[in-house]
Structure formats: structure tokens, C-alpha cells
Amino acid sequence: MAEIDAVIRERLHSDVVLVRQVAEYIVNSGGKRLRPALVALTAKALGYQGRQHYELAAVVEFIHTATLLHDDVVDASELRRGRDTANALFGNAASVLVGDFLYSRAFQMMVSVQDMRVMEILSDATNVIAEGEVLQLMNCNDPDISVEDYLRVIRYKTAKLFEAATQLGAVISKANPEVEQALATYGMHLGTAFQLIDDVLDYSGDSSQTGKNVGDDLAEGKPTLPLLYAMSHGSQDQAQLIRTAIENGNADHFQAIQDIIRETGALDHTRRQAETEAKIAEAAISVLPDSEYKRALIELSAFAVSRDH
């Protein structure tokens, strides 16, 4: 990871002071670096010996960081990774524009790799992620969305970049299409498991551990799986309380809704769904030869569902 961090710091350079300040603030704010690690681990698991994985890992991190900057503006978030969000410190305009800078810097870097398949994967991913953001916006304050609608947002908005990261490792390693697809499957299902647990932690986590305010999803009117399950398995009055909270984007009754979620087993159900996704991810990489890197990928699938932050 030290090599990836070095590339990230080098590529953050800008002669515009505010761009550099905002970009450095969010990139250095203590993220897990999970997505860039996937580029390196998959490449190494396939025996890759070059250095392009460092550059592409940084590209993935910049794309992810740009989405965070834009997300926090859209959601009016004030806390991320236990720190003030960039928009809270620098304002919405600076956050949006620096997000654009990171997207464009990512594209400059991916061009330097000079591989059209890399360009195709990353350009498709950024497009799908943008669609996922819009889908989530459309779903907000709508308690009648289906579980399929909810999962589609996860696959587009979160899991797509996981999928792209694992595909990139295969592409630069010159893996055959079957192996590339297996790694793409791993990334998609790992990313889905990761987001499902994020949604669990919004109703069961500790803000000091998760780095975000518990209950933010409810305050933003996001109908996540714990809420959808609780509505369908609780009493009529319980379902109505949750429905009203989603429609109004109101966390005033957060404690009561948290109790309903626990009583209906919604958190356990969501965790089981995450475990299923993680098992699919792990099964997908059975095509890889045994190595410390494959074992690390397996450990990541376990971490995705066992984590508390």
C-alpha cells in the first residue's frame, strides 16, 4: 500500500492551492483504500510483475474520492470517516469542482497506461456509477421501492467500482476472458456485501467506529434493506412509522425505528444477505492459483461482512 499511497500523493499535485487543499484533505482522511488494494491484489494473484497496478490503483481511488465529494454535497453530509466533510469545511462549490478535478485527473492517468480495455472498463464504470447516483436520488423518500430496486442502486453506485478494480488486475496481467469475468464477479459481489453491511451499520454501528452519524440514511430518506425488511415484517403501525420517516426524511423517531428493525430481525436478515454475496465472491476466485494474494482476497470477503466500521 505504501507504493500506491506514494503514487496518489504525487498525482494529487495542482498549482491551484484550493484544489490541492481539498483533494489532499479527503484523500488523506483515513479511508480503507480497499478499492485500490483490489487492483494490486488481483494483479499479483495472477503473477503480474510490472508497475501499472500502482497507477491504476490510484486511478480507482481518485474516482472513488470524487464520488465521495459529490455524494456529501448531494446528501448535505457533515461527517465522514470521523472528520468534517470537505463540503462542511470548504463549501459545496469547492467540493463539487475538486471532485471534477479528481475525475479528470483519473482519466489523464488511465490514458497514460495506453490500454483501450483499461479505458473501456473505467469509462463504463464511471458512467454506471453516475447512473447509480441518480437512481438513489430517485429512490429517496420512496418507501415503496422493491428490494430489486435497492440492490440495483448498490450494484451501480458501489459495487461497480469494486468490479472495475478487480477486472483491471486481470487486464494488465493479460488474463484470459474467463478469469477476467471471474474476477469481475468477485468484485461485484464483494462490493454488494460491503454496502449491505454499511446499511446495517447505519442502524447498529458506533459513530466513533463508523466515522459517520448513525441514522444519516433515515434522515436522508434512503429506503435501505433493513427498513424495507422491517416494513414488510412488522405490524401495520410499525410499518407506517417507518414509511412516514422515509417519506419525510426524518430521523426524529430513530430510536423507535431502530427498535423495530431489531425486533423484526431486519439486521440479521441483511447480514445474511451480505454473507451470501461474500460466499459468491469467494467461490468466483476458485479459478486463481493458491497464493498469499488469493488468500488476502478471501480474507477481504470475510472482512466485508464481519467489520464494525
Write a structural description.
The chain has helices spanning 2-11, 17-27, 34-45, 52-74, 86-90, 92-112, 116-139, 147-172, 177-204, 207-210, 216-219, 225-233, 236-248, 254-263, 266-284, 292-306; strands at residues 79-80, 83-84. The protein is an all-alpha fold. It has a single domain, classed as Farnesyl Diphosphate Synthase (Orthogonal Bundle), CATH 1.10.600. Strands 1-2 form a two-stranded antiparallel ribbon. Strand 1 and strand 2 (83-84) form a beta hairpin. Helix 2 (17-27) packs across helix 6 (92-112), helix 3 runs antiparallel to helix 16 and helix 4 (52-74) runs antiparallel to helix 6. The longest helix is centred in the middle third of the chain and has 28 residues, at 177-204. It starts with a helix and ends with a helix.
Chart the SSEs and their pairings:
Layout: H1 2-11, H2 17-27, H3 34-45, H4 52-74, E1 79-80, E2 83-84, H5 86-90, H6 92-112, H7 116-139, H8 147-172, H9 177-204, H10 207-210, H11 216-219, H12 225-233, H13 236-248, H14 254-263, H15 266-284, H16 292-306
Antiparallel strand pairs: 1-2
Helix pairs in contact: 1-4, 2-6, 3-4, 3-8, 3-16, 4-6, 4-7, 4-8, 7-8, 8-9, 9-15, 9-16, 12-13, 12-14, 12-15, 15-16
Output the keywords.
309 residues, mainly alpha, Farnesyl Diphosphate Synthase, 16 helices, 2 strands, 1% strand
| Major β-sheet annotation | 2 strands, antiparallel
- CATH topology: the name is Farnesyl Diphosphate Synthase
**Cα shape:** globular
Q: Any idea what the radius of gyration is?
A: 19 Å
Which strand order does the major sheet show? 1-2
The number of helical segments is: 16
CATH architecture: Orthogonal Bundle
Helix share bin: over 70%
Mean pLDDT comes to 93
- What would CATH call the homologous superfamily? Farnesyl Diphosphate Synthase
**Spatial gap, N to C terminus:** 20 Å
Order of helices and strands: HHHHEEHHHHHHHHHHHH
Secondary structure tally: strands: 2
- CATH class assignment: Mainly Alpha
Query: Strand content of the residues, in percent?
Result: under 5%
Write down the domain tally.
1
Q: Catalogue the unreliable spans.
A: none
